[in-house]
């Protein structure tokens, strides 16, 4: 497996791909992103699958933030596309949800959720930090397993 996500240092800018289709919600989210202290955050905005692909041609995100207002089908399609794309398959995805009661069937590629009512620069920063750490841990475990799977097979046969 050729996955690798390097740790992002506090001095490096954080590249966030923001996906949504409601300009009012997107502007509020962008304002919250700008208020995150201690990090330089570069943001690109995409409104649909086509604009996601266009943004990814010239932008390499470290983090992807999706507003669930885009609709369930579009959310699933966006997460599936991002999970399949070589450039973004290892990038953590967080969804901003309107309600805790809405089911999200796109959960297979999503690492975190933030409720809009709790959305703040601090909750965003915590989601980014936790998602990046969790994703790095996942990738490390994938690599460690791949390296040691032969040893595990031999142990299983001995037992």
UniProtKB/TrEMBL annotation:
InterPro entries: CheY-like_superfamily
Superkingdom assignment: Bacteria
Protein name, entry field: Response regulator
């Amino acid at each position: 497996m050729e996955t690798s996500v390097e740790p992002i240092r506090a001095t490096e800018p954080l590249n966030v791909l923001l996906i949504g289709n409601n300009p009012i919600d997107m502007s509020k989210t962008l304002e919250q992103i700008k208020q995150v202290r201690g990090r330089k955050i570069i943001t690109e905005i995409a409104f649909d699958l086509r604009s996601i692909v266009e943004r990814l041609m010239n932008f390499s995100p470290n983090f992807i933030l999706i507003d669930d207002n885009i609709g369930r089908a579009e959310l699933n399609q966006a997460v599936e596309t991002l999970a399949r794309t070589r450039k973004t398959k290892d990038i953590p995805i967080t969804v901003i949800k309107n309600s805790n009661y809405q089911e999200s069937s796109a959960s297979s590629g999503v690492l975190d959720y933030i409720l809009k009512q709790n959305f703040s620069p601090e909750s965003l920063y915590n989601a980014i930090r936790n998602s990046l750490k969790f994703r790095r841990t996942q990738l490390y475990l994938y690599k460690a397993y791949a390296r040691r799977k032969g040893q595990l097979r031999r142990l299983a046969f001995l037992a």
